[in-house]
Structure formats: C-alpha cells, structure tokens
Amino acid sequence: MSTPSAKLLVYVSGQLACVKIVGRANFTSSIDFKILLNELLEKGYTCFLLDLAECILMDSTFLGVLAGFGLKLAVARNGEQETGPIELLNPNPRIAELLENLGVLHLFKVVEGPLAVPTEIQAHTPSLSQPTREEVSRNCLEAHKTLMEISPANIPKFKEVTQFLAEDLKKAKAGS
Predict the structure, then answer these.
(1) Distance (Å, whole) CA 110 – CA 103
(2) What is the 3-state secondary structure (H, E, C) of 122-150?
(3) What is the pLDDT of residue 108?
C-alpha cells in the first residue's frame, strides 16, 4: 500500500514565501517541492518559511532536497544576495532529530509558535507533476548525494542506497 504524498500549500506576501507541508513528505512529493522552491526563488522571494506543524514525517529524499535548497541559499548569502535562512516552523521532534542526526540542522533556523500571516497574503496550491521513474530515481540519487556531501557521517548511511539508485538510473536510461 502506498502512502499519500504531502500536500503543499503556498502563501506569498512581499518577499516572504511560506510553504505549509501537510502529511508525509516523501520521495514522491520531493520533486514537486524542489520545483516549487526553485520557482519561488526565481520569482524573487528571498524569505522562506516552512510550516511543518502538520508534517508527519520526512523521508531521507525529501530531507536531502530540503538540505540542498538550504545549502543553495547559504551559498547565495555568502555571495551577498539578500536571502535569509530557511525557517522551519514547528517541526515535530522526529523531524528535528532527523535534521540533527543527518548534520543539516545548521542550514535552517527552527522557530516555534503560531503562524502569523499578513492579512494581504495570497494562498496557492501548486499543480502536481507526474514524474517518470527516471526522474524519481535521479531526484532520489541527487538528494542522498547532497546529504553525504554536507555531512561525511552520512556516507555509511546512504552509500548502498546511492549505489542502488545509480544502477537503477542506468537501467532506466538504457530502457528509454
């Protein structure tokens, strides 16, 4: 039985983009999440808040995509672009522990409390993509490589996974 992907809701106002993640943030929702964050960045949003109050869990692929975006913004900040750290609002203890254990928590600012949204905020539900098996494998591979690059302690955790995904990706490319 497959578990449903997370629902993504977007609120934008001024330079703020707030993404509310509801449900299970897993490898299937990570592609839409990655596309969404990059589109928001391209549109000029510089402050990112992820409302995790209703996010039940994040798998390693979703966490890798999130960490990759956090790393991208950290690099942009060092280049003196006006981007702040990604704020994670109300992550549950399990998600906070995963971020800490994977060595990526330093890329984010954890905030607790109610979500205060401006009155002029606009809500959007992004359209979902239908990724191919090859796109899913590529995204999973990139996410796990990112986690290993950020923290060498992750190499033993994800070495076999990345090898499997790389082989799966080769097979998928050969079949197409």
Answers:
(1) 14
(2) EEECCCCCCCCHHHHHHHHHHHHHHHHHH
(3) 93
Domain boundaries, the chain: 7-130
Please choose, from the candidates 80, 81, 82, 84, the residue with its C-alpha nearest in 3D space to the C-alpha of residue 50: 84
Give pLDDT, residue 119.
58
Query: Given this model, what pLDDT does residue 118 score?
Result: 60
**Structural tokens at position 12:** 């934008």
What is the pLDDT confidence band of residue 173, given thresholds at 50, 70 and 90?
confident
- pLDDT score of 104 more than 80: yes
CATH of domain 7-130: 3.30.750.24
CA pair distance 60, 104, nearest whole angstrom: 12
What is the C-alpha separation between 139 and 22, in angstroms, rounded? 21
